[in-house]
Amino acid sequence: MLDYDYDALREIGRIVALARDEMAKAVEPGMTTKELDAIGQRILEEEGAASAPITMYEFPGYTCISLNDVAAHGIPGEEVIQEGDIVNVDVSAVKDGYYADTGRTVIAGTAKSPQHERLVEVSLTSLEAGLGKVKAGVKVNQIGKAIYADARKNGFTVIRNLAGHGLGRTLHGEPETISNYYSREENQLLKAGQVIAVETFISTKDEVVYQSEEDGWTLFTPNKSLVSQFEHTVVVTEDGYEVLTGSFR
C-alpha cells in the first residue's frame, strides 16, 4: 500500500458523498443552482472540509452544478432549474490534507423523454462497467474501454476530452487521465493502494466539449447534446477496489 492515511481518505470520501446525495435529493424545478450549491457549502463546512475547486482553483462556487448540455464546471448562480432538466452535481473537497471527488446526475421533476432517463441510467451503468475492470495490475485504459463499450451498446457515446484522474493528497494526480474510451497511451498499470476518480461523461451525440469564453469555466457541447456524469473515488486493491464515496443504488 502507498503512504496514505486511508482512514482520512475514507472520511473525506464520506463527506463529499453526503454533500452529493443531499444536493441530489434537494433538486427540484424552481430552485436556483446557487441555492443548490449552498446545500453543499453547508455540509462541507459542518463536516470541517473545504471545497477543492475553491481551494485549488478559486472556482466561483463550492460545487460544480451542470445542466443539460453543460458537461462539467457549471458555475452556481441565478439560473433557475426547470422541469425535466438534467442536473449534475460534482462535489470535491479536502480535509486533513486528503481529497475526494464524486458526482451524480438526476432529473428535476419529470423527465422530458424516456431517452433522458436512459441517458442518466447508462452513465451509471457505464461507471459500473469501468469500475469492474479496476484492480492492481490492470492497465488504466481498460477502464475507458469498458465505459465506452457500455455507452455505445446502449445507443450513446462519450465525451473524449473529459476524463477521470488520480488523486489523494491533491485533487488531480497520477494517472493524469482515465479516459472514457480506449487510449493506447494510458497503458500504465494500476497499483494496490492507488487512489483514483473514475467518472463517466455520457453524451447523446457530441464527443467533445468547449470552454465558455464568457466565464472561462463552463464546458458545453457544441450541438446542445445532453450529458450525464457519475463519479466515484476508489482505492485500488489487489483483487478489485474499495469505494470511498458511498453508493448510488
Task: Give an overview of the whole structure.
The strands form 3 sheets. Strands 6, 7, 8, 9, 12 and 13 form a 6-stranded antiparallel sheet that branches. Strands 1, 2, 4 and 5 form a 4-stranded antiparallel sheet that branches. It is built from 5 helices and 13 strands. The radius of gyration is 17 Å and the shape is globular. The chain has 249 residues and is an alpha+beta fold. This is Methionine aminopeptidase. Its EC number is 3.4.11.18.
Instruction: Show unreliable segments.
Output: none
Kindly name the structural category.
Answer: alpha+beta
What proportion strand? 25-35%
- Average pLDDT over all residues: 97
> Quick one: biggest sheet?
6 strands, antiparallel
- How many DSSP E strands? 13
Helix content estimate: 25-40%
- Separate helix tally: 5
End-to-end gap: 29 Å
Topology:
Elements: H1 6-26, H2 33-46, E1 50-51, H3 52-57, E2 64-67, E3 70-72, E4 86-95, E5 98-107, H4 114-131, H5 141-153, E6 157-158, E7 163-166, E8 173-179, E9 195-203, E10 210-211, E11 219-220, E12 227-237, E13 240-243
Antiparallel strand pairs: 1-4, 2-4, 3-11, 4-5, 6-9, 7-8, 7-9, 9-12, 10-11, 12-13
Helix pairs in contact: 1-2, 4-5
GO molecular function: initiator methionyl aminopeptidase activity
Keywords: Aminopeptidase, Hydrolase, Metal-binding, Protease
Protein name: Methionine aminopeptidase
Keywords, please?
249 residues; 6-stranded antiparallel β-sheet; globular
